[in-house]
Design goal:
Layout lengths: L1 E4 L2 E3 L9 E5 L2 E5 L7 H9 L5 E6 L5 H4 L2 H8 L2 E5 H7 L8 H9 L10 E4 L5 E4 L2 E5 L8 E5 L2 E5 L3 E3 L2 E3 L9 H13 L4 E4 L9
Length: 208
């Protein structure tokens, strides 16, 4: 694990998407887990680190490069796994993704299929404190139930946007479920003036 700032670590073993560990007092929260194929390496990295007990895992959205190792982490730690309500329904197969491209991607098992953990739904219309100082915030657009996580001025934004040269930019259009909503989410992140942005892909950075 690599320390980003005191209290925040970026896992080195996660595959596909980034995974971050937040330390808060005597507990820890994991934000995203990477692909299922990286589960064993993620568990080994967590087991070898001197960290507090992992009590919660917050999944920013349902894509397999973010949720894939969550079930394995849950089995190993007993942590509660959180996911936005709309994305929970999609991951469980109760609803289809909102765009044709995403429906094809989901059915094909792109990047591998995620094992579905026991999920606790996050409200898609309101913020939710999942642990002391750790708040899940609705950030839809990339997916309907996408959330970001805020902790002491740090924003863990999943795939709500990418960071490029100190600015937030969108992912390619075919990956975005609703562009107008994604625009509003990006603007809201900028307006919140985070002291550090930890994205789902790429390196943590400060906005300019």
């Amino acid at each position: 694990m690599r320390e980003v700032i005191p209290g925040v670590h970026r896992l080195q073993a996660s595959r596909g998407g980034n995974a971050y560990l937040i330390e808060e007092g005597d507990r820890a929260v994991l934000v995203d887990t990477g692909l299922r194929s990286g589960a064993d390496a993620v568990l080994a990295e967590l087991a070898g680190a001197r960290i507090p007990t992992i009590t919660d895992v917050v999944l920013t959205h349902y894509d397999p490069d973010h949720v894939g190792a969550a079930a394995a982490v849950q089995r190993a730690t007993g942590a509660r796994v959180w996911l936005g309500a709309a994305d929970t329904r999609i991951l469980r197969g109760e609803e289809e993704p909102p765009t044709r491209t995403r429906r094809v991607m989901f059915r094909s098992g792109w990047l591998g299929r995620a094992e579905v953990p026991e999920l606790t739904e996050l409200p898609d219309e309101a913020e939710r404190e999942v642990a002391p100082a750790v708040v899940a915030v609705p950030a839809p657009g990339h997916t309907p139930g996408h959330h970001l996580v805020r902790w002491r001025g740090v924003a863990f934004i999943g795939d709500a946007a990418r960071v490029s040269k100190g600015r937030l930019v969108h992912f390619p259009g075919f990956l975005i479920s609703d562009r107008a909503t994604a625009d509003a989410t990006l603007a809201a992140i900028v307006a919140s003036a985070p002291r550090l942005v930890c994205p789902g892909h790429g390196s943590p950075d400060r906005l300019t």
